[in-house]
Amino acid sequence: MKIAKAPPHPADSAPPPAVPAEIADIDALTGQLAQYLPQDQIARVRGAYEVGAHAHASQKRKSGEPYITHPVAVAGILAGLRMDAETIIAAILHDTLEDTGLTRVQLEAGFGETVTELVDGVTKLEQVDFASRLEADAESFRKMLLAMARDLRVILIKLADRLHNMRTLSAMEPAARRRIARETLEIYAPIAARLGMNAFKAELQDLGFRTLYPDRYRVIAAHIKRTLGNRRESMAKIEHALSERLAAEGIPARIVSRIKAPYSIWSKMRSERKSFEQLMDVYGFRVVTDTVAHVYQALGSVHALYKPVEGRFKDFIAIPKANGYQSLHTVLFGPFGAPIEIQIRTEDMDMVAERGVAAHWSYKSDAGPANSAQSRAREWVSGLADRQAATPSSLEFIENVKVDLFPDEVYLFTPRGDILALPRNATALDVAYTVHTDVGQHAVAARIDGKLAPLRAQPVSGQTVEIITAPSAAPNPGWLDFAVTGKARTAIRHYLKHLQHEDAIDFGHRMLDRALDALGSSLDSIPAEALDRYLAEHNLRRLEDLLSDVALGNRMPDQVAAQLTALHGSVVGIVPHPPEKIRITGAERGILSFGNCCHPVPGDDIVGYLSPGKGIVVHRVECPNVAELAKTPERRVEIGWDREVQGDYRVELRVEVVNRPGVLATVSAAIAAAGSNIEDVKYTERGVQAATLMFTIEVKHRKHLADVIRKIRRTGVVNGVYRYPL
Q1: Residue 455 falls within a domain, yes or no?
Q2: What positions carry a catalytic annotation?
Q3: Of 116, 244, 288, 552, which one's alpha carbon is 20 to 30 angstroms from that of 570?
Q4: From the CB of residue 669, how many other CB atoms can be counted at a distance below 10 Å?
Q5: pTM for this structure?
Q6: pLDDT digits over 602-640, tens only?
Q7: Residues 594 and 551 in one domain
Q8: pLDDT tens per residue, range 175-186
C-alpha cells in the first residue's frame, strides 16, 4: 500500500516517524497468515499480539529490541510452515508464563485450554531449586518432551523459538553463545532431523557450527564456494542431460542441484575420516516429479543415461526412514570422473523431507496414514513418555534421548516380515527390546538370517533377526556394555535397580544384624517404637530404606547399630562376641562389585569396603589398595565366600611367550580348552625373541583358574604365566 506524501511544510521538513519494528512485524505476520487462515482466526492472532505486547512492554532483548519482536518472529517462522491459528497464538505468547506476570488462569480465560497447554509445554521449570544448571535444563527438557507426547505442536514452537534465538545469538555473551550452540547441535538439530524437518535441522546445524567453531566454518565455507565456482559449467551440463532425458520419456520433473553444508562436510570428515576433496568430489542432484510411478520410471531413465554404482541404491519409498522420509537414492558414474548422487521423489515426499511433521499440518487429522511423518513422530514421542516413567534421573533420561536421536541407518526384518528401524551399531539385544520389552528381558541369543548369533552381534540392513528367549533368562549389568537404543538401556537399568533394591534390603539386613550382634543385640530385639523414632529422625519412610542405605554404603552399619542400641539401652541376656563373616554367593551383583585392581575369585581370601552409593567393593586381602582402604576401618566389612558360589569372575593373566607366528592362537585355544572365555587380549611388550600378552578371562573359581594356567603352561610356547596383580 502506497501513501501519498503531502508537500513538506516550510517550517517542518522532518520525515514522518518510522513505523515501530514490532508493529511492522505483526503486519507482516498477518499478511502471511492471510494466505491460508480465515479472517476470524487472524483477528484472534492480533488479539494475542496485543496481550503479549502489553505483557512484555517493559522488556528488551539483549540486542536492545522490544522483546515482543522475538515471539512475533517465532510465529512468523511457524506461519511459513502454514501452522494452525492455535500454534501461532501460542508462539506469540510462549514466553509470557515464564517471563511476565501473566498467569495460567488469565491465559486460559483469554485463549482457551489448548493454547495454554502449548505455552506451558515450552515453559522452563524456573520455580524449582536444582543442584546445577545442567540438571535444571534436563528436567525442563523432560517436561517439554512429556508435553510433546500430548501435542506435537509443543516441539514445533520450541524448534522455531530455538531457530530465531540462533539467528540472533550474536547479542549474547560468548560463554552463553557456546552453551546454546552446543545444546542446539546435540539436542535440537537432531530432534528436528528425527521429526523429518530437514530445513530446520540444516539451518540449526549451520548456525550452531558457525558459533561453536567459527574458524573451521569460515575455512570450509570458503572451500565450498571455490569448488562450486570451478565446477559450475560441468554441473549445468549434467543437469541439462538429465532434463533432456526425462523430458524425452514424458516424465515431468524439476531438477535441483544439492550443495553440502559446512557442518555436514565437517561431521563426515570426522566420522568417515575423509578429506574435504574426497567429500566434495561428488555432484548431487534432486529430481522431483509428480507421482510414485514417475519416480521409479525416472530411476530407470537416469540409470540408462549414466551407469549406476553397484551397491549404492537405496529405496526409502518401499522402506521409509523412521522419521517418515521417502525417496530413492542412487549413485551414478558421471561424465567428468566424479560420481553423481541422485535423489528422486514426488512433490509431496519433497515437502515431507523438508518439513517433516509440519508438512500439510492444517489438513491432516490425528489419524494420518500409518507411514506419515506425524504418526511415526507420535509413536516415537509416546515411547519416550513411557521410558521417562522408568527413569528417575532427568540427566540419565536426556542421555538416553540423545542416543535415540542418531540417524536411523539399519533396517531389519522380523521373521513375520515386519520392518524395524534401529540406530547404527544396534545389536541383536536392541532388536529384542524393540520388538517388546518382555522379549528383551528374557533374550538369550538370536538367529540372524537363520544363523545362531550372540546378543551382542550387530546385524546389517536387510537381515532377518529372530530372538531366542528363555523364561529363566534375565538382564545382567554386562548388557549395558553393548545395548545401544534408549529403550533397551532404560529397561535394563530399571530391572537392575529393582534387583539392586531387593538385594540391598537382604544384604543390609545381614550387615546390620551382624553389627548389632557385635554389641550384644539384634534387629528383632529392637523395640518398634525405638526403630520408628530412629527412622523419623533420619527422614526414612520405612525399615527397608534404612537397610538399603546400609548395603549401598550410604550409612555405616556399626554407627546405625550403636545409635539403635542407644535409643533403648543395653539388651540383657545376649553376650557380645566377635562377629561372623557375611557369606556371599556372587548372586548379590546388585550391591556387590569386584575390584578391578585385584580381580578376586571364589577361593581367594577377601575383604569388603563400603563405597557410598555403590555398595560393597570386594578386594583380595593381598590387594595393593587394601593398605590405603584400611585408613577408613569403619567402612571395612568382613566377608567370605559361601559354599555354593555362582557366576563367572574376571581375572587378568600375564603370559610371557616366545615371539613367533601363531603363538596368540595357541594360547587362546588352550584357554578355551580349559572352559574359559576371553574378554580381552593385548600385547604389552614385544621384542625379537619374546613377548608379553595380557589376557582378561572369565573363571568360575580359584581351582578353575589353576586349570587354565596349567593348560597354558603345557602349550610349549610359554615362558611364564602369572596372575595379575601377583
Answers
A1: no
A2: 98-99
A3: 552
A4: 13
A5: 0.59
A6: 999 999 888 876 778 899 998 988 888 888 888 888 889
A7: yes
A8: 889 989 988 888
